[in-house]
Amino acid sequence: MPSRRHSVKFELSPDFDLAAFVKSFQSAQWRASRGKSGTVRGAVIDTPEREILSAGLVTLEEGTGARRCRTVWILPKGGGPAERLLRLAGGDAKGLAAQLAARVHLGLKGASAPIGRYETSTTPIDFVSAAGSVRAIYETMRPQGGDTPAAVLRLEVTRGNADTLALASGLSRLAPGVGKRVENGPRGLIAVLGITPGPAALGKASITRDMTARQAVIEILRRDYANMLANEQGARVGLDEEFVHDMRVATRRVRAALRMFEKVFAKSSLDRLTQKIKWLASVLGTVRDLDVYMQAVPDYLAYAQWEPPDYRFYVEGLAAKRKAAHDALLEALDSQRYAALKREMETFLAKPCFSSSSGGIKSIARKRVESLALKAQSAGDKAKTDEELHAARIAFKRARYAAEFTRGLAPKQLGRLARLATQYQDVLGRHQDATIACDRVREALEAEKKDRLKAFLLGYLLACQRLSAIESKREFLGRWRDGGSDEFDAAVKAAVARL
Fold first, then answer.
1. How many beta carbons lie within 10 A of that of residue 360, not counting itself?
2. Which pLDDT band, with edges at 50, 70 and 90, does 54 fall under?
3. Which of 80, 89, 402, 430 is positioned for an S-S bond with 472, CB 3.0–4.6 A?
4. How many structural domains comprise the chain?
């Protein structure tokens, strides 16, 4: 089944040859078919509005001929994550400005002349083999007046799994000019145009062996709490669903750090704060879960490679639920409860209430990493039912956070452990997403059971989602039982020994 997790981008150097790239696949018995190329012209406009974004940069892409605005990138110059894509429905420039004004209170009226223009060209190529199907999208971006375009290659799995992507990535590297993997989006655009964006959210904390446990946990908490706040404004105004995702991840990491280092603090100082953070994560989670599901519905329907009929009735219902969940999030972020959480967190970080125990970070890291990793391994060994697979996902997530928090103490060994835990967490996450999706459809079926057409359509969607859950389960169990458990055990032992 297609998955947004199964995609990757590569930088391309000037010696990249598209024909040689296609031949690298054909020599491995992949059939190739080239799609229709397209060209989009765009401009970067500096707006004077400062109500929501501090002099935000807005990119308008207009298709040639019809001149329909396709996407908008909002890039704040100061504070918060800078690269987030806001997708809006089509329409002309006037309609787009109205959508922007309605969604983020950022109008284009009075905007200055474009500060940069560019042209993007794309060529899609579909590759098919017994291993699966992959779409390669060759994209070049040339600023106005520029000679050499910046080029990237994006691979997307349309049928298959992570192994399909790994194989296609290996074949891609056989072609000359294919460089390192990249995350290319608004940052790539502004780099080509020579524009400097605002600062992104803070990176992960850097823990060293000479730190005490107290110093280490405060550094971790400060970073993740700062990242939580950095995403708050984006989560409020709805520029992109990833703001809610990143804010939720930050709150989860704060909770995980408090849980992992709980013995460093006085218990009385933790309980109330932990409950408040759990409440915030739950409110964010309601919105995020609907975002994930709404994005996944087309992928589920593509599972059997069948063109889906009109599911508008169902998607509109999901959109209404998502709006209600976002309204509840706004109410929560405006509440006294959230204000109290921030005050308490800031006081906690400024004047932490430590327990009488102290010492270096290594001893706590060794105990907690080993304990959480072994719990994940045990959960993986036991996992058979949906409930046990869900418990294993949570266990791998906690083991991953523990390894990431302390990675600076043994970068190679803990990095390997974190990567393995992440891989299993991801595949189990897809299983859990599909399982929850089935529950959503069953609920909708109950409401629509008198409408035979809608019931049939929902039944088909339910079958696709259940097939996805079965595939994810098989993927996890197959890898885990075929040496994965031993590999994870070896990674745990190597990390603990180095600590």
1. 15
2. very low
3. 430
4. 2
3-state secondary structure the chain: CCCCCCEEEEEECCCCCHHHHHHHHHCCCCEEEECCCEEEEEEEEECCCCCCCCCCEEEEEEECCCCCEEEEEEECCCCCCCCEEEECCCCCHHHHHHHHHHHHCCCCCCCCCCCEEEEEEEEEEEEEECCEEEEEEEEEEEECCCCCCEEEEEEEEEECCHHHHHHHHHHHHCCCCEEEECCCCHHHHHHHHCCCCCCCCCCCCCCCCCCEHHHHHHHHHHHHHHHHHHCHHHHHHCCCHHHHHHHHHHHHHHHHHHHHCHHHECHHHHHHHHHHHHHHHHHHHHHHHHHHHHHHHHHHHCCCCCCCCCCHHHHHHHHHHHHHHHHHHHHHHCCHHHHHHHHHHHHHHHCCCECCCCCEHHHHHHHHHHHHHHHHHHHHHHCCCHHHHHHHHHHHHHHHHHHHHCHHHCHHHHHHHHHHHHHHHHHHHHHHHHHHHHHHHHHHHHHHCCCHHHHHHHHHHHHHHHHHHHHHHHHHHHHHHHHHHHHHHHHHHHHHHHC
- pLDDT at residue 40, rounded to an integer: 73
Tell me the pLDDT of the chain averaged across its residues. Answer: 80
CB 421 within 8 A of CB 376: yes
Structural domain contains residue 269 = no
State residue 207's pLDDT score.
Answer: 81
- Residues 228 and 349: beta-carbon distance below 8 Å: no
Structure tokens at 446: 């109950």
pLDDT band at 8 (very low <50, low <70, confident <90, very high): confident
Q: Is the pLDDT of residue 308 over 70?
A: no
Residue 7 has pLDDT above 50, yes or no: yes
Q: Is 38 part of a structural domain of the chain?
A: yes
Of 193, 218, 236, the last residue of a domain is: 193
CATH code for position 132: 2.40.320
Q: What's 409's domain CATH number? A: 1.40.20.10
347 within domain boundaries: no
Question: 307 versus 170: which is more confidently predicted?
Answer: 170
Q: What residue type is 326 in one-letter code? A: H
Q: Cα–Cα distance between 85 and 226 in angstroms, integer?
A: 22
- Does residue 297 belong to any structural domain of this protein? no
- Kindly report the backbone phi and psi dihedral angles of residue 40, in degrees, each rounded to the nearest multiple of 5, phi listed first: -130, 130
Reported confidence tier of residue 439, pLDDT bands at 50, 70, 90: very high
**So what's the pLDDT on residue 46?**
60
Domain residues for the domain of 80 are 7-193
**Higher-scoring residue by pLDDT: 142, 75:** 142
Give residue 200's pLDDT.
53
